[in-house]
Amino acid sequence: MVEEPSHGYQIDYDDLDVSDLVDQIHERVRREESSRGLPPQALEERIRGRLRTYLDLDDDRPYELQSILQLEGPWNVSPDDLRSSSRRGLRRLIGGARAIFRPFVKLVGNFDLPIYKQFKINLGVAEALHDSLQQSAELQARVEELSDRLERLEGEAAHREPSAVRSQDGSGSES
Amino acid sequence: MRLALVVQRYGAEIRGGAELHCRLIAEHLGEKHQVTVVTTCAQDYLTWANAYPPGIHDVNGIPVWRFPVRKARDTDRFGRLQERVFHRKHSEAEATAWLQEQGPYSPRLRDWVATYRDHFDYWISFSYRYWTTFYTMQAAAGKAILVPTAEPDPAVDLPMFEHLFRSARGIVFNSHEERSMILARSAAEDVPADVVGVGIEEPEEADAERFRARTGIREPFIFYIGRIDANKGCRQLFDFFQRACARLENEGVAPPLLVLAGHSVLPIPEHPRIRYLGKVDEQEKYDALAACTLLIMPSFYESLSMVLLEAWALNKPVLVNGHCDVLQGQAVRSGGGLYYKDGDEFREALRLLMSDERLRESCGRRGRTYYRDHYTWPVIEDRYDRLLQRLAADDGILEAVPE
């Protein structure tokens, strides 16, 4: 038997459907994401939380994200850029020099780190942009659907209007 | 049957997932078959430094052959190689170098397997991504069964492992999701296989009151047990949990405690609703599970998650990371808990589970039923036996047993 306790979720405790319940959670979260009703401070807090999630990727995530968004390629900085060169001989020279001097350099700093951080940030921004574009597309589709529906309703209302006008003239029964 | 189990480390005190998995299988199959374990002298999974003496030993009644690791892992070189092999164009030589650095590198172990290949009916190798598994599977070709314990990380996409999966005599998967992942990458549908998993060491008793008395924790709490590491999703857990606490407190709802136990490589946030117990032993773990309101498992990468089974064995609901296919699949199949995919869903699922006792009871009950139907030792042993009998009948070792 499906019940709806005070928290508002519909749950059949005897025949629990986890996917359905998680879908209900997702739907409730999605409704709450609407700006309406959220005080500005709460909205700002939510946006900041999401911004942080986009930009502060765990170390494994950038490469996974790059693959998911199909963003491999030379558009982004890469930790490899410090030794890349279009000249093969120069590339080998740089690679060799890095191998020799790496232990000493690591004593004072890690020059790969800023490049890697920028690499991660760029992918985080790309993900945020992707999500924004996706939401815009979904909103656009929703707006078009609502516009179509509104047009249909207005058309139906206009079609009913002439009988109401006739009844006011007394030429027919009032409706 | 005479079975040899190959694993990178082995010992009663080693708690790593795949190693514990192997030991439990060895000890349970050893009740019916002649089981020998072949492993290295390593104890530390980061360096593979030799810790145990080489030679033959007895561990809980199982004969264990230990071979020295020739070269400990150079973690710096390993990190560089892994970065290159996982994320950039690389040569076969670099992939081979990565595998050697991944280790544990023990040519004597490999040679011993090659020498004694025919002394055993089958060789069961655990964890596909280690040097020991890769080369002993080749040394025991035709008799090598693989227990991949695979997670969806870049290693499983390496071409070297595609052949490994296809050339196995049999494969024992931990989950349906693992099976789908490996078959999608290796076209190994013709390899005899089964989804089996592993059982757990169920405690004789789990005392919630003993936990409360020992720790002083008497309020509702959610429990995390395991390595506290970004790779286990703990950084995200800290973020989600703290934000959930802030929101719940704003709404006048008392948030639960988050209690963590295990070895930590991450700093634990200084937060009034987060408690870190440090490492705990098995009994303390089960006492904590008995006392908790639910188990939280935030990991992005799991092959099975034995801790979910441990929670369900005690009728406890779980809340898991839905970005991990295995965890989401287990939650949905079992009905033993909920999953989340972002901070808001985490907060709402947490709020729902903490507030609805009937839901917790339903999830806990379902989880226990699922555990008993699929992961108790008679079920696990029966599945191994069926696969071994099938292979043995095909190989002419035994007469075929009617199903």
Q: What about the largest sheet of chain A?
A: 2 strands, antiparallel
Poorly predicted sequence stretches spanning 5 or more consecutive residues of chain B = none
By CATH reckoning, the class of the largest domain in chain B would read Alpha Beta
Radius of gyration of chain B: 22 Å
Estimate percent helicity of chain A. 55-70%
Number of strands of chain B: 14
What is the beta-strand fraction of chain A?
under 5%
Please report the number of helical segments of chain B: 15
Structural category of chain B is alpha/beta
Helix content of chain B: 40-55%
Most strands sheet of chain B: 8 strands, mixed
Strand residues, percent of chain B: 15-25%
Would you list the SSEs of chain B in sequence order as H and E? EHEEEHHHEHEHEHEHEHEEHEHEHEHHH
CATH fold-level label of the largest domain in chain B:
Rossmann fold
How would you characterize this protein structure?
With 175 residues, chain A is an all-alpha fold. Chain A has a domain at 57-168. Helix content of chain A is 67%, strand content 2%. Chain A has five helices and two strands; from the N terminus they run ββααααα. In chain A, helix 2 crosses helix 5. Chain A is elongated. The two termini of chain A are 45 Å apart. With 403 residues, chain B is α/β, with parallel strands linked by helices. Chain B has 15 helices and 14 strands. Chain B has helices at 17-29, 75-87, 92-102, 107-115, 131-139, 159-167, 176-186, 208-215, 234-250, 282-291, 306-313, 325-334, 343-355, 357-374, 377-395, and strands spanning 2-6, 34-40, 55-59, 62-67, 122-126, 144-147, 170-173, 193-195, 221-225, 257-261, 274-276, 294-297, 318-321, 337-340. In chain B, strand 9, helix 9 and strand 10 form a beta-alpha-beta unit. In chain B, helix 2 (75-87) packs across helix 3 (92-102). The two termini of chain B are 19 Å apart. The chains are: A mainly alpha (175), B alpha/beta (403). The A-B interface holds A 5, 7, 9, 11, 13-14, 16-19, 21-22, 25-26, 28-29, 32-33, 49, 52-53, 58-60, 63, 79-80 and B 83, 86-88, 153-154, 230-231, 235-236, 239, 243, 300, 322, 331-332, 335, 337-345, 348-349, 351-352, 355-356, 358-359, 362-363, 366.
